[in-house]
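Appendix B, Record 12. Input sequence as logged:
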Amino acid sequence: MPKVKNWQLGREMSYPYEERHPRWQFAFVFNTNRCIGCQTCTMSCRSTWTFSKGQELMWWNNVESKPYGGHPRNWDARLLAMLEAANPGKQVWDAKGAFDGKTIFEAAQTRKSGPGAQPALGFLPTDDDWRAPNAWEDTPTGGDFKRDGQYGGGTQLPEHSVWFFHLARICNHCTYPGCLASCPRKAIYKRPDDGVVLIDQKRCRGYRECVEGCPYKKAFYRPTTRTSEKCVACFPRLEGKDRTISPTGAPAETRCMSACVGKIRLQGLVEIDKDGNWAAAPENPLAFLVRERQVALPLYPQFGTEPNGFYIPPRWVPRDYLEQMFGPGVESAIEQYSCPDRELLAVLQLFRASRQIIFRFAIEKGSKVAEVEVTLPNGKSVTQEIFNDTVLGFNKAGEEVVRLTIEEQTFERPDVHVNSI
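Logged structural output:
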């Protein structure tokens, strides 16, 4: 197999195709600390894309309750066990934050070779696995995943004795997609303009190799058409074709992003340089959170697909669970989020603040409004200074689309109003 660079693993890895990158890459950050599991995002996607016959079990967007929930059931635990079986005791991160274990592509090479070999390690879920989009919803755990009532203790940071959290998921539009690698028809491709991963319905023959090869199980088989379908990142919106949202043709957020009640979502497009890396752009809110501050982390980076979906980890969950899910940067990410500095606090205001994609932010400094004592996850107490700064967001054309202050604005009702007695 050819070798490609994977910055999330800190090394080169094997992949069935030569390295190739789009000019811009669709990406997003989800803040799990804010998600309330309301499923508004799920239903907005459902009503837009998966309402037809044959799509009954498709949930391009879903929100599952961890550690027990998942769609399909046990999608992540099952694949992690398969990787461990293929490389016993070696699926670990080294002291420098690089992953020395085997990815789904490298593990597949150890199982079978020759004609008919699957390029990516995976499995095909059963019909029963698909039927419950959030099995074990809101089911907590305590200690070593106990469900027998022996929870005990309280709920105190940095880690709760009893815990669960909501994990919102869509297709990660990976840099090295498992679905694309697995398709024998070459029906799956990444768009060169924005990196969105799509399935050519004319080429697809419904072999379901993509369903097996996607580690996140975000490719779905449709029995009525005998083809596979998946999240399309609402690409007409990315192209600025919704003139109600984007009268000047600026790229707009997807349906699931713009419907989010908890304001957990920030979507964007990041520029890719000639070497395949994210171009240096600290003024881009996604690049700032992911590459500059590393407060948002990829979901199961050890799978090797280099997903372009990133998560701010939940503060109250045991760190060993979070590290196997998001990699070794969890402690640093949570520490920054627990006590954000002036710039990070301003950028966090941009989540779900505009339906147009924010390509650049700027901060107008304001006066100090508070000092708050904060206890960090390591137990150290620090004083957080809060300033009433104003954060501005600009679309691709450089037009201002959002302006927010750190202090939430309040409005006083006049003494006399319609319902006055």
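The chain is about 20% helix and 20% strand.
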